[in-house]
Amino acid sequence: MTDGPAPVLAAELIRWSWVGDHLDDIRRLLVNEPRGHADMYGAFVTPPDDEGADLGVVFFQNEGYSTACGHGTIALVTWAIDSGRVEVPAGAREALVTVDVPSGRLACVARLDERGRVDAVRFRNVPSFVLARDVAVETSRGPLDLDIAFGGAFYASLEVRTAGLTVSPAALPELIALQRELRPVLDRSIEMVHPEEPELRGLYGIIFWQPIDDEARLAQRNVTVFADGEVDRSPCGSGTSARLAILHDRGEIAAGQTLHHRSIIDSAFDARVTAAGPVIGGHPSVVTEVEGSAFATGRHTFTLDARDPLGAGFLLR
Q1: Torsion angle, CA of 240/245/249/250, rounded to 10 degrees?
Q2: Scanning 112, 200, 222, 285, which has its CA 20 to 30 A from the CA of 193?
Q3: Contact 125, 152 (CB under 8 A)
Q4: Residues near 307 by beta carbon (within 8 Å), at least 6 away in sequence
């Protein structure tokens, strides 16, 4: 993969907008109960923007549509290769797959085992940058300071111990409540708009993180709560890029150094800053790579009975 920044794609942004107007009944059918749940995540596979990519994607969740999803990209590339959607030469141990997402074009590399199955995928993200540091917010847990960065979407980062919390399943109800408190306040306080693509706007999620004691590497555990209180079970790929931008801006990680990023369920991504990116609206950016794994869990058929009074379903949370 080259070190050049990935362009933002007008066509994929148009598709991102179009699906909300034309396919939202399908999103609700799949995400809502009884077929899904409040933390369900999905994607529409689309044609690529041009011949420079293999496929495109529009991600969706309980609130609507997402401009980026790192773990979704890893899963998509895994599916594309394992299903034969993207052909790989026999005996190859790596495969290059290019994916168009609403925030830009992602160059991906899949590592394959001896049987041609995907072991892991790393993607080179769109340029990531810090929008604001040490943003002071008054909350029900007292004053808190957060950093805001873009990694395909805008994320705020909070060291959870400053709020008297931990990244743990037991703390999830309090973390969800805090995300719902913080997100509207931050959206009102700071204009979060990508300087070059104004469609990329608004705070998507809050990354709650804490350090992990590890003498061999920089390691952190996080849980990202995004959309309407939705919990990311993965370490959050686009959020990991946002974390790298913050760590690099603070001088806490150097180019080439690995961040070992663990999730609330202890799955992990390894990520690094690979190069300096362009200056975006006065903000220096970095080019990041994130690597992780995804595995198929099944094939599902969903139906909608026209007589069903619940129709496309419901959400209780």
Answers
A1: -10
A2: 222
A3: yes
A4: none
3-state secondary structure 204-242: EEEEEEEECCCCCCEEEEEEEEECCCEECCCCCHHHHHH
* Token representation of residue 20: 């909300």
Residue spans of beta strands (DSSP E) within 16-93: 42-46, 55-60, 65-66
What's the rounded mean pLDDT across residues 89-109?
Answer: 96
Report yes or no: 249 and 130 within 8 Å, Cβ to Cβ: yes
Q: Which of 13, 53, 58, 69 is catalytic?
A: 69
**How does strand 218-226 pair with strand 268-280?**
unpaired
User: Rounded distance, CA 185 to CA 180, Å?
Assistant: 9
- Residues 270-299: pLDDT tens digits? 999 999 999 999 999 999 999 999 999 999
Taking CA 220 as the corner, what is the angle to CA 214 and CA 226, rounded to the nearest 5 degrees? 165
Strand pairing of 118-124 and 104-112? Answer: antiparallel
For residue range 136-190, list pLDDT tens digits in order.
Answer: 999 999 999 999 999 999 999 999 999 999 999 999 999 999 999 999 999 999 9
Report the amino acid identity of residue 154. F
**Residue 108 a catalytic site member:** no
Quote the CA–CA distance of 192 and 140 in Å, as a whole number: 23
pLDDT band at 316 (very low <50, low <70, confident <90, very high): confident
Band of pLDDT at residue 5, cut at 50, 70 and 90: very low
